[in-house]
């Protein structure tokens, strides 16, 4: 099993340096409190569920319900830009409006990663930006080990891959999946 450090030991950067890096990086970053999400997953596992993915398949409302427990705490300027928000507060207040049915599949993968205590998640998703555009993303997040008494904070990095998806839609007419098409480019 992969060794992970606790939230406090994981970050060796001073708060000032972390803040500067967070603000100027050209990668959209979303800081999320997923404490209640992790608690919901743990409650299900405590009931003896062994295959969490299969359990979610038979309880489709769970994913959407738990997603509402995700709290967006902070975003950087790039996240505001790609999300079509007016400013940081607009994005934080309206983040849930970006969720579309296709988003739920990637959130299901994140929940599975949490249930399996994996140290990270990566995958593709789809959102609707706050200015109404469809956005396809590649996402990666480190999933910190739970520390009793502390909030579970997740830093979610996302890359807008919509231009590549649009290119594939114009050139790949064979009905292959997005991931398969990306492999051909």
What report would you give on this structure?
The chain has 185 residues and is α+β, with helices and mostly antiparallel strands. The chain has a single domain (27-160), classed as PAS domain (Beta-Lactamase), CATH 3.30.450. The protein has helices at 7-10, 15-24, 35-46, 52-58, 61-67, 77-83, 88-94, 103-115, 162-171, 178-184, and strands at 29-33, 71-75, 120-128, 134-142, 153-160. The protein has a five-stranded antiparallel β-sheet, sandwiched between helices. β3 and β4 (134-142) form a beta hairpin. 19% of the residues are buried. Residues 1-11 and 177-185 have low confidence and may be disordered.
In round numbers, the mean pLDDT is 86
- In CATH, what is the homologous superfamily? PAS domain
CATH class: Alpha Beta
Which bin fits the share of residues in helices?
40-55%
Give the DSSP E fraction (strand runs of 2 or more residues): 15-25%
CATH topology: Beta-Lactamase
- Rounded to an integer in angstroms, the radius of gyration calculated over CA atoms is 17 Å
Structural class: alpha+beta
How many helices? 10
Q: Can you list the strand order of the major beta sheet?
A: 2-1-5-4-3
First and last CA, distance: 34 Å
> Could you describe the largest sheet, including whether it forms a barrel?
5 strands, antiparallel
Low-confidence stretches: 1-11, 177-185
Count of discrete structural domains = 1
Question: What would you say the CATH architecture is?
Answer: 2-Layer Sandwich
* Number of E-type strands: 5
Overall shape: globular
The H/E string reads HHEHHHEHHHEEEHH
């Amino acid at each position: 099993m992969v060794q992970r450090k606790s939230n406090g030991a994981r970050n060796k950067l001073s708060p000032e340096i972390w803040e500067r890096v967070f603000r100027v990086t050209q990668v959209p970053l979303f800081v999320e409190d997923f404490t209640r999400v992790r608690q919901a997953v743990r409650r299900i596992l405590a009931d003896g569920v062994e295959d969490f993915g299969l359990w979610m398949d038979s309880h489709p409302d769970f994913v959407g319900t738990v997603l509402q427990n995700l709290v967006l705490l902070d975003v950087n300027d790039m996240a505001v830009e790609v999300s079509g928000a007016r400013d940081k507060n607009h994005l934080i207040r309206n983040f849930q409006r970006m969720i579309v049915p296709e988003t739920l599949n990637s959130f299901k993968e994140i929940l599975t990663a949490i249930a399996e205590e994996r140290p990270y998640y990566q995958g593709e998703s789809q959102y609707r930006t706050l200015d109404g555009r469809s956005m396809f993303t590649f996402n990666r997040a480190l999933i910190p080990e739970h520390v009793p008494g502390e909030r579970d904070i997740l830093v979610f990095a996302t890359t807008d891959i919509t231009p590549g998806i649009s290119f594939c839609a114009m050139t790949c007419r064979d009905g292959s999946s997005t991931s398969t098409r990306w492999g051909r480019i």
